[in-house]
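Input chain follows. Return structure tokens only.
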Amino acid sequence: MFNWHSYNLKKIPISYIDLENNYFKLSRNNIAEIRNSISTFGLLTTPVLLNKQSKYIIVFGHNRINALKDLQNEYTDSIILDDIPSTLYIKNVMLKIFRNEIGPIGRVKLYLIMKNYFNYNKEDLLKLAKDINIPEKIAKTEILEKIFSLPDILKDYIDIKNIGFKTIKNLLTLPDDGISLLVQWLKIIDMRVNIFKIIVDYTIDIYKRDQTLKKIKDIDLDLFHDKKEKENFLYNQIKTIRFPQFIELRNKAGIIIKKLNKSGIEVDFPEYFEGNEIYIKYKIKKNEGIDSLRKRINEVDTTALENLLKLV
């Protein structure tokens, strides 16, 4: 961190610190990692607190102080400020960003802090947005406030997974019940980033088309216990709803494949009809002989294969 040496260093009871006040919190939630670090190495970086009459406000060190509390520590060494120098504050924040400790939501919050607490002017705000990789088109609008008003579970996911601002901006077009569905799914699925992005896009498409998300709300993830199975089922169901013709194609392909299987052919067909090829397999037993295989090949239903290829 940058020079705090000229400020007071004190041992502060954690009970004197307002742990509920997260106004200045920018870093991702990684208390478990920091708790392990403190247990092994001790407190490596001193928290910075703002001296208020009632309780101390955390400026830097939210995760560290909460980790100390979890470890049954009653005190923490802290740097105490009577006010926050904006230049020193932003330098320390930029170091955190350089260390990749702050995700997209943290960067949005930083922008809002510099705007509302430190009273940055428009020119300085736009420069800041550029420095912390917030798109100018987003920084110039009210979108940042909307992003920061998202539910905490969704914001934590966005931060931890480093979801891009394009996806964040897109999901803001969902109605409240769409946002609630995303939160509901994230509570029970550790969703992969690529799946999350696709689900957001498909959900938006469905809402634009139907003006409702009723079909998606009916997806029952309780049918499965494994989180991976839940994720796959959710993805397949939403894709099916987004592309209703997919059901028809899948049924047609299933009928053809079943017919070919009965003739002794195994068909490896792309699950989502991507690509431009299929694979067919013949099993040959040791005592079967090549003539038998040749006969089976000659008897293959080429019309069925041709119809299957048309579906790819």
